[in-house]
Automatic annotation (TrEMBL):
Record organism: Priestia endophytica
Family under the similarity heading: Belongs to the class-II aminoacyl-tRNA synthetase family.
Enzyme Commission number(s) from the entry: 6.1.1.22
Descriptive protein name: Asparagine--tRNA ligase
Every Aminoacyl-transfer RNA synthetases class-II family profile domain range: 130-430
Catalytic activity field: tRNA(Asn) + L-asparagine + ATP = L-asparaginyl-tRNA(Asn) + AMP + diphosphate + H(+)
Gene from which the chain derives: asnC
Keyword match Ubl conjugation: no
Main enzyme class: ligase
Keywords associated with the record: Aminoacyl-tRNA synthetase, ATP-binding, Cytoplasm, Ligase, Nucleotide-binding, Protein biosynthesis
Pfam families documented for this protein: tRNA-synt_2, tRNA_anti-codon
InterPro entries: Aa-tRNA-synt_II (IPR004364), aa-tRNA-synth_II (IPR006195), aa-tRNA-synth_II/BPL/LPL (IPR045864), Asn-tRNA-ligase (IPR004522), Asp/Asn-tRNA-synth_IIb (IPR002312), NA-bd_OB-fold (IPR012340), NA-bd_OB_tRNA (IPR004365)
Cited NCBIfam families: asnS, PRK03932.1, PRK05159.1
GO biological process: asparaginyl-tRNA aminoacylation
Domain of life: Bacteria
């Protein structure tokens, strides 16, 4: 019977056949240990010469790394195995023998591994990171579906930019100028006026020449938008959502977290509510921590965010940034016009901002003024302004960066490992 590694717990003491690749092996004169993978998991196959005969044992000893096989054997419980089971091999059939597989068990440099990303994702740790990514995606759909959100897909090609065009990829759209989207937010606002609560999940692009461990050129965003939700309402949704995906990873990725040596106690603590600090108080705190060059009106960099995050054992909201630092569409604080009703959610352990969100301006005159102040082309935003002309309501939304969230929850140092095929400043291959 053909089964997958993920299914073997249903076949204890039964003979099964698994289509697999040989990730690694070690052998002696009488026994061989085959590290098998099939995409659903990793499992050890044990080949005993006295039980299988000379021919099968010879195949086990000679088969090369990453060769593909049909492996037949008896499923056995094994308390010593992290997986909990092993296969007592009775037969082997080589499907294709791999020759000179480039990624060997020895150490390799990062650039070498990135050049071979198409093969590196087969490795145990990379597999674990991407399985955690998949669980976050699954839990995202679960959360928003349970809370009556409708998924809406915004366009990737746009004629305008929600936050200015300086960091966008420009292309020609027949005779017009177009840009690769840096956010689906404006379109989600239109969708929220039709469906109430919506979310998008798709690729976004930033032509930002950054080489930090937090930045990618192409990344994926989850962007909810909610009609009749004000600033405080949105913060509660953000807390609930982040708690939900963190607890889903804890519950459903135990083996992957163990493979990555992730300290799960840090994840167990990710429960709402999250602490908050205003931008004003953050400036005061940073000065007390020795950041003498930071002044009110300055944006925070990675060292500033990390210093703030290290003061808490949960993600922390930094709220009420200066209006001058944020995009044109954010609602000013009615009690203090120089700041906006916004928040960035900063992950612990130095992973930086994972969510940016705000209440949106719903007054057409104020939004018109902001478009002009930011030097934007009014005609390009005509449709967006019309959302405030025909039944405008208070509304709020946010965007969560998937790759930073994957890196944080999995404990992976660099976001390049939290996406299958990263696009970096100097990398468009493979």
């Amino acid at each position: 019977m053909k089964v997958t590694i993920s299914q073997v717990s249903n076949y204890i003491d039964q003979e099964v056949t698994i289509g697999a690749w040989l990730a690694n092996k070690r052998s002696s004169g009488k026994i061989a240990f085959l590290q098998l993978r099939d995409g659903t998991g990793f499992m050890q196959g044990v080949v005993v010469k006295a039980e299988v005969g000379e021919d099968v044992f010879k195949v086990a000893k000679s088969t090369t790394q990453e060769s593909s096989l049909y492996v037949t054997g008896i499923v056995k419980k094994d308390e010593r195995s992290p997986f909990g089971y092993e296969l007592s091999v009775t037969g082997l059939e080589v499907i294709h023998e791999a020759v000179d597989y480039p990624i060997t068990p020895k150490e390799h440099g990062t650039e070498f591994l990135m050049d071979h990303r198409h093969l590196w994702i087969r490795s145990r740790k990379q597999h674990a990171v991407l399985k955690i990514r998949n669980e976050i995606i699954r839990a995202t759909y679960e959360f928003f579906n349970k809370n009556d959100f409708t998924k809406i897909d915004p366009p990737i090609l746009t004629g305008s930019a929600p936050e200015g065009t300086s960091e966008l990829f420009h292309t020609k759209y027949f005779e017009e100028d177009a840009y690769l989207s840096q956010s689906g937010q404006l379109y989600m606002e239109a969708a929220a006026m039709a469906f109430g609560k919506v979310f998008s999940f798709g690729p976004t692009f930033r032509a930002e020449k950054s080489k930090t461990r937090r930045h990618l050129i192409e990344f994926w965003m989850i962007e909810p938008e909610m009609a009749f939700y004000q600033f405080e309402d949105s913060l509660k949704v953000q807390e609930q959502y982040v708690e939900h995906i963190a607890q889903a990873v804890l519950a459903n990725c135990k083996l992957e977290l163990k493979t990555l040596d992730r300290d799960v106690s840090k994840l167990e603590n990710i429960k709402a509510p999250f602490p908050r600090i205003t931008y004003d108080d953050a400036i005061t705190f940073l000065k007390e921590q020795g950041f003498d060059d930071i002044e009110w009106g300055d944006d925070f960099g990675s060292p500033h965010e990390t210093a703030i995050a290290n003061s808490y054992d949960k993600p922390v909201f930094i709220t009420h940034y200066p209006t001058s630092l944020k995009p044109f569409y954010m609602q000013p604080d009615p009690e203090r016009e120089e700041v906006v009703l916004c928040a960035d959610l900063i992950a612990p352990e130095g992973y930086g901002e994972i969510i940016g969100g705000s209440e949106r301006i719903h007054d057409v005159d104020l939004l018109d003024q902001r478009v002009e102040e930011h030097g934007l082309e009014p005609e390009a935003y005509k449709w967006y302004l019309e959302l405030r002309k025909y039944g405008s309501v208070p509304h709020s939304g946010f965007g969560l960066g998937l790759e930073r969230t994957v890196a944080w929850l999995s404990g992976t140092e660099h976001v390049r490992e939290s996406i299958p095929f990263p696009r970096l400043l100097n990398r468009l291959y493979p």
